[in-house]
């Protein structure tokens, strides 16, 4: 039972940590506009196939 509780707490802590890092990054980007704009994650993000904004940008390529 303690393993489940520890796992739940760890998962929650990692998610909360990720949100905290995003908030810190957003605040840092607002204080330092000379370093560039804040890049919000959208959809599948960026991938090697392209910008990540197009629907087929992150889709795996099919080879027949």
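Sequence proposed for the structure above (64 residues):
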């Amino acid at each position: 039972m303690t393993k489940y509780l520890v796992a739940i707490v760890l998962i929650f802590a990692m998610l909360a940590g990720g949100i905290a890092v995003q908030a810190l990054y957003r605040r840092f980007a607002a204080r330092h506009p000379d370093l560039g704009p804040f890049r919000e994650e959208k959809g599948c993000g960026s991938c090697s196939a392209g910008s990540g904004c197009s629907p087929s940008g992150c889709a795996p390529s099919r080879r027949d």
